[in-house]
Amino acid sequence: MRRLFLALALVCAAGSARAACTLPYALLPPAVADATKIMAILDALVNCVNHAISPYLATPSLEMPIYLTRDGAAQYANITNPAQNALQLQGQGNNLTTALHINPGPGTLPTGTIDEFVLHRTSLQAFGGNYGRWSFTAQGPDQGNATGLYGEFGGTAPIGPFVLQVGIENPPAKFASYEGWRFQTTTTGSEDDNIGAVLFGLTATVPRNQVVLPIANIGGKGTRDSHAVLWEGKANDGTERAVWWRAKVNVTANAGASSFLLQQNLNGGGWVTWLEISDAGIVSGPAVATGKLYVTQSSPASGDACAPGQIVADTGFIYACTASGAWKRAALTGGY
Fold first, then answer.
1. What's the whole-number average pLDDT of the chain?
2. How confident is the model over 141-150, as a mean pLDDT?
3. Which of 31, 179, 181, 262 could disulfide-link 165, Cβ–Cβ 3.0 to 4.6 Å?
4. Which domain holds residue 29?
5. What angle do CA 281, 229, 184 make, to 5 degrees?
């Protein structure tokens, strides 16, 4: 046995300049030979010989499970479960953070894609073919140093939306799914199904507050307005202009009095409130103050469905809903 070890060791030393053979155990007299240790030494020597002679297997095959360890400690990561082709990063429960980092390393970074984590939908990923993928990507200056989620599809590869969803199993074997939002990558031609649209609450069967703009507590006496939802249009009469409209809550008193505002701003010229609805139900604003209040053009029958207080008009009458499903009208006469 000693002669076999010596012969194998000489082959390793003479035939390979890549690295010295490292044996897992040292059996020195008067130690008693242990079968497990001997087999481990033989496996190590065979592996060393395989890499010492030519041709050698440049890309060795690995059989799962594969374990990555540090200093002989317990496993830190493993590729296991061949039925699922799963890669599992296993922490040690030792009060330390378990994390997976993709680090581009020191030196000059690329100006295009720096690093990315990619989910492929197809085996073939060559541009010009049939391929599909989503990636979480950090871009360089060529793409404005942007970082985000990117979908890329080509040819006949199936294209689907990107979904943010949570599934809750409670009680056991009973799942409830809640979809927060869906980024559309295809269209059916419907107004609510355009490429690039973000849909909220698509799968919900019970209405709920789906788009929420919370704001932090004040921490003392005072008021704090809500965030605003802003819509932007563009105009150009030789000069590029931005046209903004926004809706927000204006909190007017420490006890919580408030109003809802609809405001307009032309190219940064300042916000003008065109409509204000107070929490007492009072509607005001320039349109109301100047009498420029427009009503719907309609000619309802006396028993048509309506809500009390609703007002419409046509060319001959003004109509008022006095009770649910009850209209009264007055003739419009004269002129000025």
1. 82
2. 96
3. 179
4. 2-52
5. 125
